[in-house]
């Protein structure tokens, strides 16, 4: 009887431990990437546009699935109008005029697609490339940490129509759900590249779920201030950052994916899965306001390469996460695989208990990284390794190939980036 009880307890322990491991990174009983995502968008024939979107949209407007729309130039939704987009609708960004959709402050977008019928924004080029068109910009009146609590987006847009910021943290700019944004991020003279999706001063009642940005010329997702809740966001092989947070963003990110390529990166400063900063310009920042806080769980960040070690040796790979001074990041139950190193902290961050309690890494799975957590420009990370390597954080370290680490990342149509606990041989450091 006693022996049977021991066997039962051991089985329960193994089962609990397996479940705890499986919860790291993106999760779900099934692969939630199925049906609505597209990892080979350049191979899709989307057809020709039969309707034009241009100028200002000043009244409530509905885009229908039966049409294909071309986005010409900068299109602004203004005057508190609501732009509603039916599931399955296709909007094509014009290459020549660098089509861009801007939802101005007070207006909203209802792009509520379906898993089997997503809304797609893509390029009108025959051979599509990153930066073919502008992107989507959503502006709200939630708080930012700049003086005056208001600012304006640049990107060669009309400054009178691109202000954002205010006092309404719970504001509602609409719905983005089951939406794909492909080949956005046009080059802007003097301002770098636009982003696939820019969320500036957007409030917490905005629904942001199941959004995929692929092959962006700039960042896939740029969160500027605001109070946001993001679930099941997918960034696939962007040129710049996958997720960027600045200007006092208060953001919760859950069950989301960033897939990088060693051969796609910004020449200026490199590219990361996450860049967490409190400001762009310190002199414009009001430090009496909230500084950037990102709370994230079940995030998978990987460098998709057949030979990560060689790419690291060649200098093609950098860190997955960068945390700036005065910013806070709480990351739990997440996977970082194939980077050099996993995390870099700004050189201005003093390594002490107070600062490290604002930068949390718990129940993490660090895999195939050349080093884990470092301070910028400092190769001696003994103090950080001692802190985050403490067993109370339950962080796990491994050197397994991506093909062994994830269930099926080589499937061209339906890759599965969930952690493959059956093949990993991880151990506590």
UniProtKB/TrEMBL annotation:
<keyword id="KW-0732">Signal</keyword>
<feature type="signal peptide">
    <location>
        <begin position="1"/>
        <end position="20"/>
    </location>
</feature>
<protein>
    <recommendedName>
        <fullName>T9SS C-terminal target domain-containing protein</fullName>
    </recommendedName>
</protein>
